[in-house]
Amino acid sequence: MTPIIAPSLLAADFANLERDVKMLNESAADWLHIDIMDGVFVPNISFGLPVCQAIQRHATKPLDVHLMITQPEHYLEAFQKVGASVISVHYEACPHLHSTLQKIKALGCKAGVAINPHTPVQVLEDVIQEIEVVCMMSVNPGFGGQKFIAQTFEKIRKLRQLITAKQAPTLIEIDGGVNSENAPELLRQGADILVAGSFIFRSEDPMATIQTLKQLETTQRA
Ligand code: DX5
Ligand code: ZN
Q: Which of 34, 35, 197, 206 is most buried (most C-beta within 10 Å)?
């Protein structure tokens, strides 16, 4: 199987978003990864609902919304209305994670949970059946263009074991510092979805770079 490729628009040219979204429409990308930062949960502010809505007007592929915000439960419906197909909330920002996941599903979206690099995958054990996507951060959230944290490989392996043991429907998404060097190993350890920002948008030919990632093989699973 091929991986799901989700280019992160955080690395796009914000003055030419329509052009970049149309490029992604034409490319081998599967989802568009949208990073929402509030300057509180993470030390950076990206963009919010109106920009997401503008992206939706041009996008022909599902929007994968990664909420790096406090109290994300207050904004689920708003993001669903501006086109989110997947909504990931941070484990570290959700004291009532189980309930928040039910709310995302009730809106007809795929329910995702993002975890910071220091958060062990074991904390998801009792809620894994409810999680459709785990967005595993392989950098500290807040900025694009950071160096990949190698400890992620082992975390993927552990999460894959947990998903298999619980027969959960969860996909594993890797977010941060993904490139063609670490991607084969990420997939070997059990990743299903690759997010990439700078690696794609800073490359000479973004469409060809997406194709390179898309051509990789995921690990066969029973
Ligand atoms: C980081 C974001 C990532 C980021 C990835 O806070 O969640 O999605 O855009 O960018 P790269 O691929 O440049 O690390
Ligand atoms: Zn992200």
A: 34
Handedness of CA 95, 97, 99, 105 (dihedral sign): positive
Q: Which residues are known to be catalytic?
A: 35, 175
What spacing in Å lies between the alpha carbon of 65 and ligand 1's midpoint? 12
160: left (phi over 0), alpha (psi -120 to 50) or beta: alpha
CATH number for domain 4-214, candidates 3.40.50.1950, 2.120.10.30, 3.20.20.70, 3.90.1640.10: 3.20.20.70
Ligand 1 shell residues, CB under 6 Å: 8, 10-11, 33, 35, 66, 139, 141-146, 175-178, 195-199
CA atoms within 13 A on the CB side of 214: 16
SS (H, E, C) 58-96: HCCCCEEEEEECCCHHHCHHHHHHCCEEEEEEEHHHCCC
Q: What is the distance between the alpha carbons of residues 59 and 86, in angstroms, rounded to a whole number?
A: 14
| pLDDT one digit per residue (tens) for the chain, 222 residues | 999 999 999 999 999 999 999 999 999 999 999 999 999 999 999 999 999 999 999 999 999 999 999 999 999 999 999 999 999 999 999 999 999 999 999 999 999 999 999 999 999 999 999 999 999 999 999 999 999 999 999 999 999 999 999 999 999 999 999 999 999 999 999 999 999 999 999 999 999 999 999 999 988 665
Do the Cβ atoms of 219 and 38 come closer than 8 Å? no
> Is residue 48 classed as helix, strand or coil in its secondary structure?
coil
